[in-house]
Amino acid sequence: MSSSTESLTKVISPARTLRGSLVLPGDKSISHRYALLAGLAEGTSKFSNFSTGADPHSSLKCMASLGATVSVHKNEVEVTGMAGEFLVPRQPLDCGNSGSTMRMLAGLVASQPGDFTFVGDESLTVRPMERIRKPLEQMGAKVTLTEGHAPMTVHGAKLKALSFEAPIASAQVKTAVLFAGLRAEGTTSVVESVRTRDHSEHALRAFGAELKRDGDRLYIAGGQKLKAIEATVPGDLSSATFFLCAALLFEDSNLVLDAVGLNPTRATLLDVISGMGGLVKVLDVQEQHGEMVGTIQVNRQKALRGFDITGALTASLIDEIPALAAIAPYTENGMKIRDAKELRVKESDRIALVVKNLRAMGAEVVEHEDGMDIPGGQKLSGGVIDSGLDHRIAMAFSIAALRAEGETTIHGAEAAAVSFPEFFDYLDELAIR
Length: 433
Ligand code: S3P
Prior knowledge:
By secondary structure, this protein is α+β, with helices and mostly antiparallel strands. The protein has 13 helices and 23 strands. The protein has helices spanning 28-40, 54-65, 99-109, 130-138, 171-181, 199-206, 237-248, 268-275, 311-316, 321-327, 350-360, 391-400, 423-430; strands spanning 9-12, 17-23, 44-48, 69-73, 76-80, 93-94, 114-119, 142-146, 149-156, 163-166, 187-192, 211-214, 217-221, 230-232, 254-261, 278-288, 291-300, 335-337, 366-368, 371-374, 384-386, 408-411, 431-432. It has a five-stranded mixed β-sheet. It has a four-stranded mixed β-sheet with strand order 4-5-3-14, covered by helices on one side. A four-stranded mixed β-sheet has the order 6-7-9-8. Helix 1 (28-40) runs parallel beside helix 6 (199-206) and helix 7 (237-248) runs parallel beside helix 12 (391-400). The protein is globular, with a radius of gyration of 21 Å. The model is unreliable at 1-6 (pLDDT under 50). Bound molecules: shikimate-3-phosphate. Shikimate-3-phosphate binds next to helix 1 and helix 5. It is found in: Cytoplasm. Monomer.
């Protein structure tokens, strides 16, 4: 791999195979939750292997703006929290590119006296925030949006508990309600029609909160206080996805990922990798603060098969779909993706950009409002990729490029740093040319 205009464009050349072992930087979703809850808790929390991505660092910066003391040394982070009472910042809380920061933190400040204004970058400014306005207003806060988006102001208030039936599959919305419920009067409960990632539940318990589950309903009593923790953040399985997909592309690949997060609400991907012809071995599984962590070894065992992603499977793979779609043309029988309308309101319209970039590499693909059909048995050629400044698009097409004929140019490659700044260096290490 060479790069021209270093920070903006990467040129990816084809590889012969992919081999090696890695310890991945900390999970983005878990790092956000640890940052936010540590900022509210009493005492000093210490994290190692904290995410190096820009997004969780937006959460840390917001906590500093709210009065917490934050120190960062590489991937070691310390946060001294505000023991339940945030300061009202003079400047807006800048969430950068991070929808997680904006939505989850809105829930946390909703019970605090004062007005909290949230801003973000261009992409975040068009992402839907109505989904958190409704439940937070039902609990008693006031949330002012700009045509349904940020800039957003949360006018904090004394909250009352809510019985919330989540209308969309979103862990961020669930979390906003649970975080608000932490300091509401009464017991808040949440039911999800589709079970989403449960990192908030584990993190809240780790910080000392009590949560109960009865069947599908989750309960959190108000008036709970949090205590600082020490934790090592598991490696990010969504970042691992790019290399796991790359390993599937080559018959003699071998990839070992140590200390990676294996939370069952995130690990559906491993079943998909097996279904596509990968041999997945999971070793040394341990639990840390409710999160499963282990080593995975993957190599390609059989022919590369496609996999249909629909229904509840779509929700559990939502961040992994760009990478899976980018390798779909190389499968024997292609891939059908449906029920993925949410992809249109991520950091970019991920359905439109995946379709556009697959076509830029010469692939045939049919776009649907809620997904796409990607026929298998296709040969791709190197093309010019537009990342749309979306991290997962930049990384997904860098992987597709490994099996293409000729070089692929990725514009907006710097977007990878939103979740995985080391991505291109690691790709260089693992790809054998
Ligand atoms: C996340 C939830 C998902 C996911 C995002 C991280 C989280 O978003 O796409 O990257 O950490 O809770 P939604 O809650 O909008 O589905």
